[in-house]
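Team,

Forwarding the record for the chain on the shared tracking sheet. I've put the sequence and predicted structure together so nobody has to dig through attachments.
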Amino acid sequence: MARFMMIVKATEESETGVLPSKELVTEMTQYNEQLVKAGALLAADGLQTSAKGARVTFSGGRPVVTDGPFAETKELIAGFWIIQVKDRDEALEWARRVPFQDGEIEVRQVFEPTDFPECVLSPEDAAREAAMRESLREQR
C-alpha cells in the first residue's frame, strides 16, 4: 500500500472566496463516501483563500513571514485528499473520478520511512517516526 496526496489546484474563483455550488458539495460528499467505503481515505479538506494565509520562508536559517494573498493562482492549493491505495494507477483512477467540471488535481506519492536509506533515516529515527504516527492514529 502507498499513500498519495491528491492536490486540488486553486482557481481564480476559489481564491476570491467563491464557494462551490450545493450540487458540487453533494457530489463531493458522495465521492468522499466512496473513498471511505473503499478504505482509501486518510484525510481530506478544503483550504481557505491565500488571503487568509501566510508563508514562512527561510534564508540563512532565519524565518520570514509573508502574509497572503499570493499571486500565481495556478500554483496555489485549494484543497486535498490523502489516500492509501495499492499503487499510482489506483490513485490516478480515484483522481479521474473527482466530480469536477473544470479544475486540476495533482497526484503525488507520500514518502514512507522505507524510502530513505539508513544514512538519511537511522533505524532509531524510523522507530520514533513510527511511534509518533501510531500515537496520532490513537488520538483520532
